[in-house]
Specification:
This protein is mainly alpha-helical. The protein has a two-stranded antiparallel sheet with strand order 1-2. A hairpin with a 2-residue loop joins strand 1 and strand 2. The longest helix has 36 residues. It is globular, with a radius of gyration of 28 Å.
């Protein structure tokens, strides 16, 4: 009895410091929360006081408080009651929703770079809106609301289903699954709007993300139950999600079910994000920004993170909307671009943080499978006769790899067939034999003129661009030791596209081929500088590259929205990747670049083979990894930039070409020549499909490769060897 009475006082002194620490932490948290609430109130007051209509802060206060008969004024009722008040409340609700969703997504993936765009919600919502416009004639805000919400829910559900196959999804698989499905949805969206000026005109303003179209409370009240449900689910799942941060095994030991937790989090994120996109359009980086800042203030307490992330998101979106109204008067700047400018520095701070490794930012492992990596190094010293053929001419001898040679001949034959088919497509009255003869300058003079002047010039441009993209993809995949590291995933394509459009806007003329390489170089410099370099931080490079693509894509959309409909429509076709109207003259820069850069790539092939191993192994074999990596990066950037400058961003060719060529040639060599042949064949065949798929209309080659490339990326992602790495 005595012991039982003495026991508690003995335990209590040892526990004294913890409550004091918690009290100090709670006090700091309360102070930060109060400051955030005050900031949100101030920004809300600014939002109500700034805008068109010449209504000042005093009139707004009178209207809100119902003083001096202000609510009887039709002018104040219109400006404040129907425009500014609904817009401000929508900004607060959407900002809080995106901030909360971003915080949830970062917690469940243990990835500080995760944000709501990873679920493909933006692409799904865009596709839903375009389907509604193109097929059902939807033109009202409420119609956009329903279709955007349906597309967003479908996209996020598919991404989660794909990313969690084969044992559950890692952060990397979630990122790439979202990117792949988003690309496919984006390609389908482009197919629907590229040949419809009316559909494109409506879509190009909605896709920027803006609160300018908010009028009245109809939209907000219709989706308020969805937002409320999302907030409630987020708060209820906070405690189980905190247990999941300890690891699946410990979470199970505490009585939780990790799989169910992830599904519930996905439901909450989808509800919050889909409703937000349906209200104001796609807005990137807000979830990233709010989640990061909330975590910096609260530490590991997830419930507090969610509350502060909501406050931060509401304040950032409201403040950005105020800036959007004043920075370019009398016009409005897209609020998504304003937020992206804030999000970029935060992104740099995150990826350079020392806590990256502890927060899920692990590098993809080298491929240890029998098809590559160190296993290849063991098999490399096999006898020449087993895999190679020795060709002797006098005192000279050449070692020709049999499998690679056979693959090269097969690909060359495929390429010839693709050229003939492309020349024949659309000219069926000529017959295949006449077309084949016209390609080589024989037969009827009219046939020769028609094929060689109007068809072969376009084909040559496609061959050159495809070879450049294939070689660029081969180089980037090899130097990054990751077959998913390609120019389009590193932001190179979108950077080159934005540079070409900016040069056209500033100079008034379109077609500056040099702008593409400059934009590509700027993009890759930013990506490699922020991520810490290629090769050793492949995960960082990929995620920062996706963020760079989002920034450059926002710039592209702003440029297109500022041009006339006819000009924007033609430029949109080019930004989708098009060979329409291309001839020998536009292919010359790429051909010259290939003539210079291909021999350099062949010269460093031996070093590329060694570079597939770790840096210490490469250095022991006499290779300077840093120097070789720099040369390869410059070669890849130059090639990709030239290709984009000529025919626009043709997606996924740089990803697929090295993978296909590597499967054909074998794992022991870097498929430099094979990647070029595959890239040329893919571009020519995709261009042919785009010309004949729709009767009376043409689908740009970049849209065809994007629609088909998304499933290809998923196949690469879900493959057995990829599953061991991501």
């Amino acid at each position: 009895m005595t012991v039982s009475q003495v026991g508690p006082p003995e335990v209590q002194p040892a526990a004294q410091p913890a409550p004091a620490g918690r009290l100090h932490g709670n006090r700091a948290l309360l102070t930060a929360s109060a400051a955030l609430v005050l900031a949100v109130l101030v920004l809300s007051a600014l939002s109500l006081s700034v805008g068109a209509g010449e209504v000042g802060a005093g009139d707004v206060v009178d209207y809100v408080l119902g003083r001096h008969g202000a609510r009887d004024s039709s002018r104040l009722s219109l400006v404040v009651g129907d425009l500014r008040l609904p817009r401000t409340l929508t900004a607060l609700a959407v900002g809080a929703a995106l901030g909360t969703a971003g915080c949830l997504l970062q917690a469940v993936t243990r990835n500080p770079l995760a944000e709501t765009g990873l679920l493909g919600v933006n692409a799904g919502a865009s596709l839903g809106v375009v389907v509604g416009i193109a097929f059902l004639g939807v033109h009202s805000g409420y119609g956009y609301l329903l279709w955007a919400f349906g597309g967003a829910v479908l996209a996020s559900a598919l991404v989660l289903l794909i990313a969690n196959r084969r044992g559950g999804g890692s952060p990397m698989r979630l990122v790439l699954a979202g990117s792949a499905l988003g690309a496919t949805f984006g390609g389908i969206t482009s197919v629907l709007i590229v040949n419809s000026a009316e559909t494109y005109d409506r879509f190009r303003f909605w896709v920027l993300g803006s609160l300018a179209g908010v009028e009245g409370f109809t939209k907000l009240t219709s989706l308020a139950p969805v937002l409320a449900a999302g907030f409630v689910v987020a708060l209820l799942i906070a405690r189980p999600l905190s247990a999941l941060a300890l690891g699946d095994d410990l979470a199970k030991g505490l009585g939780h079910r990790p799989g169910v937790i992830r599904v519930v989090v996905a439901v909450a994120v989808t509800l919050l994000t889909a409703a937000s996109v349906a209200l104001v359009g796609p807005i990137s980086f807000l979830g990233l920004l709010a989640g990061f800042l909330a975590r910096a203030v609260t530490g590991p307490r997830l419930t507090a993170q969610l509350l502060l992330a909501g406050l931060i998101g509401a304040g950032v979106l409201t403040g950005s909307d105020v800036l959007a109204r004043v920075v370019s008067r009398p016009f409005e700047a897209p609020v998504s671009v304003i937020i992206a400018l804030f999000g970029a520095p935060v992104l740099i701070g995150i990826v350079r943080s020392r806590r990256m490794a502890s927060m899920g930012m692990t590098d993809p492992a080298a491929d240890e499978s029998p098809k590559g990596g160190r296993a290849a190094a063991v098999r490399a010293p096999r006898p020449a006769g087993s895999d190679s053929l020795v060709v002797r001419t006098g005192s000279l001898s050449l070692l020709v790899p049999r499998r690679a040679a056979v693959a090269a001949f097969a690909l060359a034959a495929l390429l010839v067939g693709a050229v003939v088919l492309s020349a024949y497509a659309g000219q069926s009255q000529m017959g295949l034999s006449r077309t084949f003869g016209a390609v080589f300058g024989s037969g009827d003079r009219f046939d020769v003129l028609l094929v060689q002047k109007f068809r072969l010039g376009r084909i040559v441009a496609g061959l050159a661009a495809g070879a450049a993209l294939g070689l660029a993809g081969c180089l980037t995949q090899t130097l990054a030791r990751n077959r998913l590291a390609t120019p389009e995933l590193l932001g190179v394509n979108d950077g080159a596209t934005a540079a070409v459009l900016l040069s056209a806007t500033l100079s008034g003329t379109f077609g500056a081929w040099w702008a593409g390489p400059l934009g590509a170089l700027a993009a890759v410099l930013v990506v490699t500088t922020v991520s810490g370099g290629l090769g050793q931080r492949g995960y960082r490079v990929l995620v920062v590259g996706l963020a760079m693509s989002a920034l450059a894509s926002a710039v592209t959309q702003v440029v297109l929205s500022r041009r006339s409909l006819n000009s924007a429509g033609s430029l949109y076709v080019w930004t989708s990747g098009s060979l329409n109207g291309r001839s020998y003259s536009v292919a010359v820069p790429v051909l010259i670049g290939l003539a210079v850069l291909v021999p350099l790539a062949l010269a460093v092939t031996r070093h590329l083979n060694v570079l597939r191993f770790d840096d210490s192994t490469a250095a022991s074999l006499g290779v300077a990894p840093g120097r070789v990596r720099l040369v390869c990066m410059l070669l890849a950037v130059g090639l990709a930039g030239l290709a984009v400058g000529i025919c626009g961003p043709v997606g996924f060719v740089a990803l697929a070409s090295p993978v296909i060529a590597g499967r054909l040639a074998g794992p022991l060599r870097v498929p430099v020549v094979g990647s070029m042949l595959v890239g040329s064949a893919l571009v020519v065949l995709a261009d042919t499909v785009g010309r004949i798929a729709l009767d009376g209309a043409e689908i740009p080659v970049g849209i065809v490769t994007t629609v088909l490339g998304g499933p290809f990326l998923l196949w690469v992602l879900l493959g057995r060897s990829a599953a061991t790495r991501v």
